[in-house]
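quick one, 112 residues, struct below
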Amino acid sequence: MEYETLYYKYRTSKTALSYIADYTELDVVKATINGNSASRWQISPPAREYLMANLNGSQSMSMQFEWNFKRAPDENLQYGVVEDFRIIELPPGDNIRQELIAMIDGNSTTPM
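---
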């Protein structure tokens, strides 16, 4: 069911459809990255304090997520690499900022 939802969501994107062409639901895996993984997230204690102070501040902030997916070469497919990014604005007082502070400080019990 998740595969059909994914396919439906991107049905109007030629790039996405070209990338997922020839894949079935058995080929697609939904991956969740553990936010506590040291291989994915490292920040020094001074940088952590600075980030938390900024998150607690009154300046607008944004988060940028980037991703890059590659698949094995195939002469019939036009797109072997898909990459994109998303910027999420975090205005002052946004609840996500407080949730990020709790997560960075190690006090969060809620998945983000």
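Strands lie at 61-70, 81-90.
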